[in-house]
Amino acid sequence: LVSWNSMLTAYAQSGRIQEAKCLFDRMPHKDSISWNAMATAYAQNGNLQEGKRVFDSSPNQTVVSWTVMITAYAHNGQIEEARKLFDKMPQKNVVTWNVMLSAYAQNTDFAEAKNIFDKMPKRDVVSWNAMLSAYSQNGLLSQARSVFDAMTIKDPVSWNILLTAYAQNGQMDEAENLFNRMPEKDAATWNAMIGAYAANGQLHEARELFDRMTQRNVVSWTAMMTAYAEKADFKEAMSIFIEMPQRNVVSWNALVSAYAQKGFPEEAKKLFDLMPHHDVSSWTSMVAAYAQNGHIDQ
RNA sequence: UCAUUUCAUAACGG
């Protein structure tokens, strides 16, 4: 059962819902983890309807099931609906509270986010990070800084949030400063800095970090590839693509989209046809490629 | 083995 659930989750996380559903239907036994994983698979791929159907058919709804649904509504912009479930559910845990907090935060309802934050029975580092992220993503740097400074526990995510905020605000020196000062870096730290350099046109600095990085993951590779592709250096971009130890649908999309945007729709189409699986972004990239290059009918 | 916060891709919106 654990193996089946793991496979189900793996499909879900890579966006292969058809395969996930097929597996789910063939499972000899299912537990609540299976049902929750299936509901999550739908929800994370924008199919709230099916997600809800799975939730409604689940033999037993756990706190995770409810939390999954709240997340699904929130990501779909239905914050009121999310709140209704939140108020209605039998018990909540810290994750449930964090989900509701993030929902308001991402909806830029800082007051309600803060309200939840103050009311929750227990806070963890994710709760703090969610508040920090809310301010950061809306360019409210001084508020973000206050939250950051008030935090008694920080993890690499906390630092990464603030680092990205400064970089996106054009304060590369402050971003670099955080990068150098932080006690512990994870892969996302390096990736954030690489992305910041790339967005700032500092391709050489980006590459230097990429080369120094020991924990390179698919995000690092894709970010570096995109950096070259945006400069129309397809030779280097392609060579990175070929070298990449793993690719996911985002890596493929990035390259397809780059060719499309630089005026090579036929190259884009070739890659598109080679992709193991397409998502909404893949299709919209191709549509945009043809539209922008005068092939409306394609 | 399932749910929440940060980093890579399209469109949308500014």
Q: Report how far the terminal alpha carbons are from each other.
A: 45 Å
Show unreliable segments: none
Give me the secondary-structure category: mainly alpha
Q: How many β-strand runs?
A: 0
Backbone shape:
globular
* Sheet of most strands: none
Strand portion, in percent? under 5%
Radius of gyration: 21 Å
Q: Your description of this structure?
A:
By secondary structure, the chain is mostly helical. Helix content is 73%, strand content 0%. The chain is built from 19 helices and no strands. Helix 2 runs antiparallel to helix 3, helix 9 (125-137) packs antiparallel against helix 10 and helix 13 (187-199) runs antiparallel to helix 14 (203-212). It starts with a helix and ends in a 6-residue tail after the last helix. It binds one RNA strand of 14 nucleotides through helix 1, helix 3, helix 5, helix 7 and helix 9.
Short structural summary:
The chain is mainly alpha-helical. The protein contains 19 helices and no strands.
For this entry, give a set of tags.
298 residues, mainly alpha, 19 helices, 0% strand, globular, RNA-binding
Helix and strand layout, with pairings?
Blueprint: H1 2-13, H2 17-26, H3 32-44, H4 48-57, H5 63-75, H6 79-88, H7 94-106, H8 110-119, H9 125-137, H10 141-150, H11 156-168, H12 172-181, H13 187-199, H14 203-212, H15 218-230, H16 234-243, H17 249-261, H18 265-274, H19 280-292
Helix pairs in contact: 1-2, 1-3, 2-3, 3-4, 3-5, 4-5, 5-6, 5-7, 6-7, 7-8, 7-9, 8-9, 9-10, 9-11, 10-11, 11-12, 11-13, 12-13, 13-14, 13-15, 14-15, 15-16, 15-17, 17-18, 17-19, 18-19
The chain binds one RNA strand of 14 nucleotides through α1, α3, α5, α7 and α9.
